[in-house]
């Protein structure tokens, strides 16, 4: 099978995008892994198919590089950029993903995804755990440059609590203006240059830690910079927006 694809990236989180509005492509986990392989395939953190939806502007079907499914924040912003390129919407769109319905928009070359409301924040002795469409474990560190992220993340991701379904692990350093974040992603099973659901979870954790009622937090990731805005009532968060760039890289065809 010859497959037409487009490559997009959002702050270094990169995706193989497929126009599947005719619902012709039903990819196996092995095919997803082949597409995402950086030596023998296209290379990506995940694969996204854009499909028609009877009630929404489009459906985003997302696969991690190992073939598993979840919601991806940066992937959703790249999906918005790709759907805009395909002429599916102008300025604002309603779409559905594995975790439910979302609103998105494009403004001044930035792409905005409205994330789902969050009502459950687990506060531990030295961590927080928050699900923002994908589960995220959050730890604060003084120095991220010296961090052995794989070893430290594996001790959490594969412990007794998380080894069955997995969790993403975020390491956070507070800065004079905003925060710096490094994220280990389940499904990719490695550090990624950026994670949208991760920086969203970190923002909400910062709000709990510092008792913010609403804010726009600037987040520095390995692949650039993102912003997250929110409103808070107790530990209930709403109107959560993930904001950042999403860019076309290249297009091509590949035999599967």
From TrEMBL:
Keyword Isomerase applies: yes
E.C. code: 5.1.1.7
Chemical reaction(s) catalysed: (2S,6S)-2,6-diaminopimelate = meso-2,6-diaminopimelate
Main location: cytoplasm
Gene Ontology molecular-function annotations: diaminopimelate epimerase activity
HAMAP family associated with the record: DAP_epimerase
Subunit structure: Homodimer.
Name of the molecule in the record: Diaminopimelate epimerase
Protein's organism: Acidiluteibacter ferrifornacis
